[in-house]
């Protein structure tokens, strides 16, 4: 259980780094960077999400695949830079 929380915590790490960079160092990040950080954080959270067993038996297709999609998708936009 602790490992899952640690992975989620590390995936959220860019959010405060970017916020402090903007507030303290007056850095500017492209809008795509904010989008990528949000997609990666959401993807990891959805990937680590485990529904209850009763819910998992009744509805397995609603969450499956979205976490993986959000984790892989930001890498496909690297050619835009």
What does this structure look like?
This protein is mostly helical and 81 residues long. The protein has one domain (12-73). It contains five helices and no strands. The model has no long low-confidence stretch (mean pLDDT 75).
Number of strand elements: 0
Shape: flat
User: Which structural class do you get from the secondary structure elements?
Assistant: mainly alpha
Q: Low-confidence parts lasting 5 or more residues at pLDDT below 50?
A: none
Helical residues, percent: 55-70%
What is the H-and-E element order?
Answer: HHHHH
End-to-end Cα distance, whole Å, is: 38 Å
Tell me the radius of gyration: 15 Å
Give descriptors for this structure.
single chain; 81 residues; 5 helices
Brief account:
This protein is an all-alpha fold. The chain is 65% helix and 0% strand. It is flat and about 40 Å long.
């Amino acid at each position: 259980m602790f490992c899952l929380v640690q992975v989620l915590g590390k995936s959220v790490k860019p959010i405060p780094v970017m916020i402090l960079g903007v507030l303290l160092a007056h850095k500017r990040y492209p809008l795509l960077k904010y989008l990528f950080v949000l997609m990666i954080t959401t993807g990891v959270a959805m990937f680590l999400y485990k529904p209850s067993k009763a819910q998992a038996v009744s509805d397995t297709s609603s969450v499956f695949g979205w976490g993986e999609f959000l984790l892989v998708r930001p890498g496909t936009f690297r050619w835009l830079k």
